[in-house]
Specification:
The chain is α+β, with helices and mostly antiparallel strands. The chain has two domains: 2-26 and 106-183, Ribosome-recycling factor (Topoisomerase I, Chain A, domain 4); 34-101, Gyrase A, domain 2 (2-Layer Sandwich). The protein is built from four helices and six strands; from the N terminus they run H-E-E-E-E-H-E-E-H-H. It is elongated and about 70 Å long. Pfam families: RRF.
Length: 185
């Protein structure tokens, strides 16, 4: 029974870290990276699709992105989708490519983005606390079952706390890396 709870905990913690990593990728740093736009949903073929499914995206230099659609007939749709995404990027159609210039960030914008990162980190910590409480209740629910002593419960709760501390350290590390990336000019 405890093995199932531990596997569930490991999976939930891993998923939480992955969610945070994906969330932080979307915070632009003033540098061109395909991850800024690759998951944008664009109207194509009468449905919404991720941009990375429709085109190759490259960053030839730190201030520009080039999008090369595999099907040149959806060039306009991709440009409109990026413009409407609300991420303050202005796509320019250049023959069979779309070019996007990434503006440099001002000091004020950088500080605002750091605040946004901190909000995302706090949200992640809150989810971690919810997961911890749920798992703790499951472990404490084993109290009184056959072959489970008070010492076993204490050991399992200590192991859970170690896993939580490790996950919290990973969350903090991701936040520090992103903040450093944002504040570097």
């Amino acid at each position: 029974m405890i093995e199932e709870i531990q596997k569930k905990a490991e999976t939930q913690f891993r998923d939480l870290i992955k969610l945070l990593e994906d969330d932080l990728k979307g915070v632009k740093t003033g540098r061109a990276k395909p991850s800024l736009i690759e998951d944008l949903q664009v109207e194509a073929y009468q449905s919404k699709m991720a941009l990375k499914e429709l085109a190759s995206i490259s960053a030839p230099d730190p201030h520009s992105l080039i999008i090369s659609p595999w099907d040149k007939t959806i060039l306009e749709s991709i440009a409109k989708g990026i413009a409407k995404a609300g991420i303050n990027l202005n796509p320019i159609i250049d023959n069979e490519l779309i070019r996007i210039q990434i503006p440099s960030l001002s000091e004020e914008t950088r500080k605002d983005l750091v605040k946004l990162v901190n909000q995302k980190l706090e949200s992640c910590r809150k989810m971690l606390r919810q997961i911890r409480n749920e798992l703790k209740r499951e472990i404490e629910g084993l109290k009184g079952e056959a072959n489970i002593s008070e010492d076993d419960l204490k050991i399992w709760l200590d192991e859970l706390q170690k896993m939580i501390d490790e996950t919290l350290d990973k969350i903090e590390d991701l936040g520090e890396v992103k903040e450093k990336e944002l504040m570097t000019i």
